[in-house]
Amino acid sequence: MPSLKGSLETSTQPETYIAPLIGEAKFIRAMCYFYLVNSFGDVPLVLETNPAITAELPRADTEVVYTQIKTDLLEAIAVLPEDFRSYGGEKIRATTGAAQALLARVYLYMKDWENAEITASEILRKTDLYHLEPDPGKVFLANSQEGILQFVPAFSSSIWMASAFYPSAAPNFVLNDGLTAAFEEGDYRRFAWTIDYNTQGDIYPHSAKYKRTFSNPSAIEYNQVFRVAEQYLIRAEARAQQNNFDEATEDINKIRRRANLDDLRNLNTKEALIAAIEQEKRIEFFCEWGHRWFDLKRWPGRIDPSVSRADEILSEYKGDNWQTTDQLFPIPQASRTTNPNLSQNPGYTN
């Protein structure tokens, strides 16, 4: 990003052209670091382009990285275009809304409940740009009303990608029984977003959020990076944490109504609301960008709040094969060989 900024400063293009490009770069850096810290924990925070400075940086505390993420997003919001229609009517580049969507999530992860609610609400007020897609079957189309930021997938018969994340091939893994059992009766998402394959009499459910495959290349689908449904559930959680139970419940019910489910009522405790949000996010965002995994790691356990919700669930599934240190990936040995100042995550020997 500093290299880009330096190049643009010598450009003859007007500031109205340069500033949004720098904003896009800051957004991309923020998004990359968000996934890095949630996957690996502490990571080097690279803010320079000089390899003499950056080649052997130690890992920065996650809190420091989050502060930089927040700074990048706030600065991006100030200069990015508000309207995706300035990009030819497609939501495939960063806008103010995209940066706000990530920022709302960052505030939530940082337990800044008030700003999480405020930022999500700012997006949800932009109904002329984004709103819930009434039909779940249309959520993942390129022209979805719900998309805030989308990626155009690669599509080539010579390239394999898992269509749970990129709509270019049939999904190669089965949804577990716990997920399929978690769908309530009549939930339209079960019919719109999953498909059952019959293999010699055995039924195997797969993700079908994206239906474009090698044999069906005509579907115009873009990968949904940020969408409106998440903002409702971010706001619901932020409101629940601030004891605003009625409005939190209403945010959850907006998602449930779209799925043809009855409203939830009498959610009069924070614990009941968080449990309802966990259920709704599990169904709404399965096979999307690691939502559930990141949520389970940051939520305290229901039975034992001294451990994470991930510990509670995975220890039940995996027994002694699960260790709390498994919540982070190992630092790749190739990276540690290149940079001797990179320590390894606990639980890994190399």
From TrEMBL:
Any Pfam family matching the protein: SusD_RagB
Biased composition (Polar residues): 334-350
Region (Disordered): 331-350
InterPro entries noted in UniProt: SusD-like_N (IPR033985), SusD_RagB_dom (IPR012944), TPR-like_helical_dom_sf (IPR011990)
Span of domain RagB/SusD: 209-348
Gene3D superfamilies (UniProt xref): 1.25.40.390
Domain called SusD-like N-terminal: residue spans: 12-108
Residues in coiled coil: none
GO CC, alphabetical: cell outer membrane
Keyword terms of this UniProt record: Cell outer membrane, Membrane, Signal
Subcellular location: Cell outer membrane
Family membership noted in the UniProt record: Belongs to the SusD family.
UniProt protein name: Starch-binding associating with outer membrane
